[in-house]
């Protein structure tokens, strides 16, 4: 079957790609665009490793078809900080040792950025509820939550 | 994953035509995809025609006015739960939408998808029946309107034909002194499917006497059930403990739950009564706060 041509915006850059209509956005990012920062855990919406934003809204890219990205604005981990210039949230994840294997980390950082854009001063309970769809098998979550709360304080300028 | 052909029509007329013209393969409509994409992934073969509804403006908006709520069924739950105006009038519906999955799932999942997927554990269905919501359905032969309690006909089954689309969810404005509430029980605080649920709407007069109620139980029968006997236990009372206990007993008696690793039959029957009582108390408190 002929591949579909998709024109979209990823991290504020115009991007075009070809895909089969049944490929997920996650699959398109990783295997058509070689943007492998977004991770695959479960492929069923349960783990949050594949978190991206679509028009600013946090979603699981494993539950979006690549063709649905046509004309939309996609945000991925590659748009948050650079290796030589980390985002505050990335810096805080390192400082608080909020990762071990790192598979959940890109999804958590994308989700944390979405949380703090919506609510710059979350309570710990609010942060835990917001991030409940991001599973981590390694850290036990406490260090992640400390990194999130510290990021929030730093970004508000009250650290 | 099934092989698909993807269409994203701009109007409901085009969408209905795509579905009714599609006679050589299965056709499904796509809203948020949080049920559908998971289901397609577990299947093989195809092709299937997938008709995305999200480019159709009237599927995506919500209007609240003196007639009540007219909800575009494909609006995502995150957008719905952020609507303070809707939350003020129908707090129970909004709290049900807020319980679906995670932040990420709510960023896609729609009330229409929850309804059309017709799972016995769907959280918004009891909440919708409690507020007397109706489904406006469009198909090749025109439109028809069906109360939500008659829309769902079995586990994963509803009254729509394969070329019909749920076009709007219509909810009447609540009478004066009315409020709703929805509660579910899951073994943890987030990310699980209801073991039992209860949606309640109560109307109280100025003396705090209940003059009308709708009580709906979820996840304890093949479909969500309106339980008139539970409502009758409240009507005429001042919502005292005896009346609440009778309503709970009627809800338990109406349930016919399954036995599985997340709850035995006895347990679910008991819990659905407890949820009914608690949701009725929350709804009554909301009336008093108004
Ligand atoms: C991780 C996870 C957690 C979840 N947690 C919950 C939960 O706690 N509670 C709960 O109730 N559900 C839960 N769900 C299930 C799901 O998210 C909901 O049922 C959701 O509301 C479905 O909406 P959707 O827009 O994604 O539907 P879709 O997947 O797009 O569609 C679902 C079905 O309805 C049909 N459909 C959709 N819209 C229409 C329409 N307008 N007209 C005709 N047919 C239509 C589709 O063809 C499909 O058969 C969860 C799912 C996941 C993946
Ligand atoms: S890979 Fe998408 S939620 Fe797990
Ligand atoms: S660090 Fe390994 S899953 Fe979170």
Write the layout of secondary structure elements.
The complex is a heterodimer of chains A (159) and B (290).
Chain A (H helix, E strand, L loop, with lengths): L3 E7 L2 E7 L5 H8 L18 E4 L2 E4 L12 E3 L12 H8 L9 H14 L5 H7 L11 H15 L3
Parallel strand pairs in A: 1-5
Antiparallel strand pairs in A: 1-2, 3-4, 3-5
Chain B lengths: L3 E4 L4 H10 L5 E4 L5 H6 L6 E5 L4 H4 L1 E4 L2 E4 L5 H5 L2 H6 L1 H9 L3 H4 L4 H7 L6 H7 L3 E6 L2 E6 H4 E3 L2 E2 L6 E8 L5 E8 L10 E9 L5 E9 L6 E2 L1 H7 L6 H14 L10 H25 L1
Parallel strand pairs in B: 1-3, 2-3
Antiparallel strand pairs in B: 4-5, 5-10, 6-7, 6-10, 8-9, 11-12, 12-13, 13-14
Helix pairs in contact in B: 11-12, 12-13
The complex binds flavin-adenine dinucleotide and FE2/S2 (inorganic) cluster (2 copies).
What does this molecule look like?
The complex is a heterodimer of chains A (159) and B (290). By secondary structure, chain A is α+β, with helices and mostly antiparallel strands. Helix content of chain A is 33%, strand content 16%. In chain A, strand 3 and strand 4 form a beta hairpin. The longest helix of chain A is centred in the last third of the chain and has 15 residues. With 290 residues, chain B is of the alpha+beta class. Chain B contains 13 helices and 14 strands. In chain B, the strands form 4 sheets. In chain B, strands 4-5-10-6-7 form a 5-stranded antiparallel sheet. Chain B has a 4-stranded antiparallel sheet with strand order 11-12-13-14, with helices on both faces. Chains A and B meet through strand 4 and helix 3 of A and strand 1, helix 2 and helix 7 of B. One FE2/S2 (inorganic) cluster binds next to loops of chain A. The site of one FE2/S2 (inorganic) cluster (FES) has 12 residues of chain A, from loops.
